[in-house]
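Interim report, section 4.2 (structural modelling).
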Amino acid sequence: ETGVTQSPTHLIKTRGQQVTLRCSSQSGHNTVSWYQQALGQGPQFIFQYYREEENGRGNFPPRFSGLQFPNYSSELNVNALELDDSALYLCASSSSDGEKLFFGSGTQLSVL
Amino acid sequence: SQQGEEDPQALSIQEGENATMNCSYKTSINNLQWYRQNSGRGLVHLILIRSNEREKHSGRLRVTLDTSKKSSSLLITASRAADTASYFCATDINDYKLSFGAGTTVTVRA
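Predicted structure of the assembly:
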């Protein structure tokens, strides 16, 4: 158990809809990163938040957006869902040095 | 494109045998980490090796790093059924993110 919790665990949406995924970071961690993992692939970096500010972004379009709250929990929002957005979405928290990531169990998103 | 690439893609071994998997990467790194993932769920950190280290041990795990060849290996000794999982290398090039490879799927047969 890492102490990072994600909700929901599974989600089914249709193309064009919007989705919000949530993550509570491990106690004492002020940095949250989001990753997308397609079936059979490694996790791909979406973005990172540090003290409520976006601290870096991967190669994802603007319809992927996020928030970090004062308690360091975080949301990932995806607008105008596409079929290719179907994946496991992983949230990971880390302390300020950011070396080790502590992952949640993920949200499995299916877009039909 | 992914920074790290694991080899082999899949590995099947008998319980008690050793499992070795390799990771190659493209650019200079700050550190390299290995993670394990069971059944498509969250990843678990296994071990971190810094760019100025050549070998590191943690329990039944042994990691080596060769920065001249831009490669790393993970050895799991005396494998158990519970070691069945996917293993990922991740490189930290000090730019706020980890870059993961596609992983090696290890199956340990009883």
